[in-house]
Amino acid sequence: MNLLDGTTIALAPLLPWAVLAPLFVVAVAVVLLAVFRRARGAWLRALAVLVLALALINPSLVHENREPIKDVAVVVLDTSPSQNIGDRKARAERELQNLTERLKAFDDLEVRVVRAGDGASGAAAINETHLFDALNRAMADVPRRRMAGAVLITDGQVHDIPENVAKLAEIGPIHTLLTGNRDEGDRRLAIVQAPTYGLVGKPVELTIRIDDMPGRQSQDAAVTLRQDGGAPRTIRVPVGRDFHMDFPVTHGGQNVLEMEVEAAKQELTLANNRTAVVVNGVRDRLRVLLVSGEPHAGERTWRNLLKADPSVDLVHFTILRPPEKQDGTPIRELSLIAFPIRELFEIKLDEFDLIIFDRYRRRGVLPQMYLENIAEYVQKGGALLEASGQGYSTPLSLFRTPLGQVMPAEPTGQTIDRPFKPTVTEVGRRHPVTSGLPGDNPNGDPTWGRWFHQVDVTPTNGSVVMNGADNRPLLILDRVGKGRVAQLASDQMWLWSRGFEGGGPQAELLRRLAHWLMKEPELEENDLRARVDGNKITVERRSLEPDPRSVTLTTPSDETRTLEMTDDKTGRAVATVIAAEPGIYRVSDGDRTALAVVGAVNPPELADVRSTGDKLAPVAKDTGGGIHWISDTEGGARPGIDIRRTRPDRPQTGDGWIGLRANGDFVVTGVSDVPLLPIGAVLALALGALLLAWRREGR
């Protein structure tokens, strides 16, 4: 029986109830019989029985020394990117300060403040607002009986509301304080459908959509398109329905299309007026033309490398017998069909992605006109690789043909015939084609095998990335017009493929060389790029010369910051930054620009940035909380929401105030037990009652 808080009456029977119960029944029956017969002294006997019964029950007064335990209230502050709109962030900080000041007045309340949605926990944090995850973490060590409730300071765009909202009632009332304004409007540009990959040279179809919220503000809107940082172009797109458009995939690697819709009359932010599509360009089939000037041991190295790649279509022919060689062998025994020289070097020349001349010398097989076509093919964007044999140092050299105008090195007429190990130059260690080749040793001799023949050349253009005997140029890379040329002043790379003296990285070198010639973005030697991993942006600048310049990062909300680059002496300078909001980040060093798209294609955080209480209304209903607009309480004598401590069975919210549940939890620090009936007094009273009853009955 509870008398007061901490004070109760407890029973401690002197005999087991199994013994007391029959005794009580017999005693009561005897007393009732005496009363029924109207015997003298019956009430005195009843008094004696009652006193003895109380004595046997042994009641005592138990008092608990209680120490109150503070209830816990959690305040979750939304710091997601949508809170940066307008004055929401400042309003939220002011309200947080008001709340903490008023909560200090309650001595029985512990307040925990957590910030959620600032991007510190990864990409999901900036794509979506997760307030309930933060709430669960804040109260993970708190028994639910101590929870007084929670207050969410947010714009209402929350994306992790539990499916079973009723279970939140055990936390207490969950109140929402909205940071935005009523009747907000906005326009957004969304990507409905976009492929991840596309074939180079062929367009892919995109579907975009412009939505005005809450209602359409115009029939159509201008959308500005910019591909890979190029010149902008504008199209008109209808508002409120899907729009299909073509996006040309112009090169391998990432093709980035930026899109920006013009602002509407009602706009909360322009961050969701911009979006970007990243399509990885892949080549359907790489067509390579290999021309071998004569049969030799290294010819199979080129063929094996190119045929090992199933995506490569190789056209290979070898000049077995030049026109001046007349040995009487019938033509039908040399070839089953006539080789289609005109078709390859005139009609279908532009269809090839790479042309390789291996040990070729002028012998009248290819007329000058076809060699002029190849030079023009390079100028227009083609790729040419020349592996020099003995013939390059003679008057029959390709340098003495129209191809000489695109070749990066001029023969001296000499050859070097002695053992040497190819070495990577200082420039080569910064060039992605030769940087970090397996076996290279910047502080000594490389570990790969030797070569024995080299054509002596003098570079006229391009970059020398490898040297040979006597530090003479061995591998030269050059850009000519829109195309690229590589010249290898030796025909003995096949020694590496045969494993001579341990071999060498011929497969890796030729793979990189071919991809650089075909303009793969990952092998650009002077480039600025940005990679995204979750919400981490890595900015990388490749350059053949050390470049100490910093870069400028522009965020989706048009804020700028400077990033210092760290050069690793291998041609790469790197900087990293954590993105705090989804969208398009632009990086520029003054000469080049790179784009980084952070977050999902259509991040929920930017899908609807209007402040609303609709999403959290079920939470408020099931937990007894309230939804209040902070703007409604501004400008008063005491701005902000009032806070009250309320009983669990009373309303938890009202006009301009919110309640936090007072649970009254405690811990017991001590207990005192005082008997209510002293044994001596009880026995004397029972004995006296019996004596009086005996005397009464004896008269």
TrEMBL record:
Gene3D superfamilies to which the protein is assigned, alphabetical: 3.40.50.880
Coiled-coil region: 82-109
Keywords, in A-Z order: Coiled coil, Membrane, Transmembrane, Transmembrane helix
Signal peptide: none
Statement: the UniProt record of this protein carries the keyword Coiled coil: yes
Superkingdom of origin organism: Bacteria
Annotated TM spans: 14-36, 43-62, 676-694
Alphabetical list of PANTHER family matching this protein: BLL2462 PROTEIN
Entry protein name: Glutamine amidotransferase domain-containing protein
